[in-house]
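Entry 14. Structure prediction run on the chain below.
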Amino acid sequence: MAFRPRMQAHTRNYRTLQPLRVRSWPGVVADVWHVEGRSGGAGFYLSPDPRLVVFLGSPPTNLSLRTSEAGKPITGVEMLYVPAGRPLWSSMEGEETFSHLDFHLEAGPLQQRLAGLVRPGRLSETVILGHEAEIRAARTLARMVADEVERPSRPALMLDGLLSAILAETLNLTNEGTDHSGGLPPRQISAIRQHVSDAFPRRVSVSELAEFCGLSESWFSRAFCQSTGETPQRWMARERIEAAMDLMLTTNRGLAEIADATGFADQAHLTRAFRASQGLPPSQWRRMRTARGERK
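Output returned:
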């Protein structure tokens, strides 16, 4: 199913000067707005999808943006990245015309696009930039995209490459040296492992891990399997087994207590899962390791 933006926009005293121009490709919808804002103009915007906005030409001097209803107005904005579910308010102090390019982004493909280049949580942060020489290149690239949206002549492949470059500039991304194709980056896998470990004895659902990564459950499951070769469910079951094994070797706690500490329903549940994984019950495995002097 093609991605469609779902943004709510409630405005007053704004008027579009030209018909809206739109281009879309997998995971992205880009549109160009030419707007006249009048004194007293105001807007409220909320979307369940991330978006990137670039003002074309000089930033409007009479337009201010706020990231909370009572927040401090921010003027001179040239570019901004707005995370999914983050509201935005605008207001006009005088009459002015301006244009902007909006990228509406599907969360799963966005996370995949930036895998290994963005730290966990970065895509949940609002980024507002203005009057910064460092984003000059991004503004130039955005103008190229806007021209293609309004007067299509090149394939979406070019637009997609330009979008990646604009995101890299806007989010100040760096190459962390990861070598992977698709999937989740190693640092994110480590963050997931820590999250699951910190949650013991509570059992973590796949939907919770997907939300933790900012992905839909289906996108997360595919990316996770691509990175680890296991489904999230099988991986978490193995993590619980390994945590139980560690407690067997490093503590004198009973199996019932260990089962409770590592997210198993009871000792019988631990025994069944352990036997399926290791080929013998945990009590026998513990005795064998202890006899070999492997007790820590």
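The longest strand covers residues 28-46.
Filed with the rest of this week's runs.
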